[in-house]
Amino acid sequence: MEHLVLSGFADEIAPVFDKQLEAVTQLGLTHIELRAADGVNVSDFTPEKVKEVKGKLAAAGVGVSSIGSPIGKIGIGDDFAPHLEKLKRTLEIQKELGAPYLRMFSFYLPQGEDPALYREEVLDRTGRMVEEAKAWNSVLLHENEKGIYGDNAPRCKDLLDQFYGPHYQGVFDFANFVQVGQETLPAYEMLKPYLAYVHVKDALFADGSVVPPGQGDGHVKEILSDLIAGGYKGFLSLEPHLTDFMGLAALEQDPQKRGSALDGKSAWKLALDSLKDILRDIPQAKEAL
């Protein structure tokens, strides 16, 4: 890409896709990270739903920055064969919707067990997914997520060292690192060469609660300043997580009650305004405002 583009998970605004598109266009965004529409996860879209969503996106003038898929968000001991088939269908959906990326994960591990015990199985499964992405000429983006193999920086780097290339790259999620006790500054330095995408979400070490960007312990401003000053051109995708929203329980193993009085659109606007405040102090980021 030639410039910075703001995007985000519009299903946190409202489950109804029409309302998502109405809100993001009112907020001035040209892209969304598509995770769910009308209560249906993108990986479960029927051909008819894909056609409907594609038409509505075109009519609204909104593109898809990435498919916010749940691929890789199963237990490492779960049957992988049907999941690989789900990936194939989701890659097809990605292509139909013109998204450049597909977000994915590296499998939930049994709590309290040494992740090293499952490394070979994680690598085997990930390798098979990367091969499938190659067949579709697609790009998988690995997201650091709580409870999966790649939840901290060293294990994210392990995966990226093995598979980084045109079909497997990295997402940096500030809040998810904070919530597993991983300091974000050393994580960023370790993973910077592999990053192709950023999830803008902040959190507090004290209790793991998600807060507006720049108000937590994720060092969002410092990291974005360095990344953008270093020439990063790509998507900054908001994942506000500032209020309860439909589908939250399906996204997290231990979803927290947000306790916010904000509705989805207001919470989204708060996160967007907080990100814009950060970007105003970064000279190279003016284009995204």
TrEMBL record:
Keywords per UniProt: Isomerase
The keyword tRNA processing is annotated on this UniProt entry: no
Domain named Xylose isomerase-like TIM barrel: residues: 22-241
A GO MF annotation of the entry reads:
isomerase activity
What SUPFAM superfamilies does the annotation carry? Answer: Xylose isomerase-like
Name recorded for this polypeptide:
Sugar phosphate isomerase/epimerase
The domain of life is Bacteria
Record-annotated membrane-spanning stretches: none
Report whether Metal-binding shows up as a keyword of the record.
Answer: no
Recorded source organism is Candidatus Acutalibacter pullistercoris
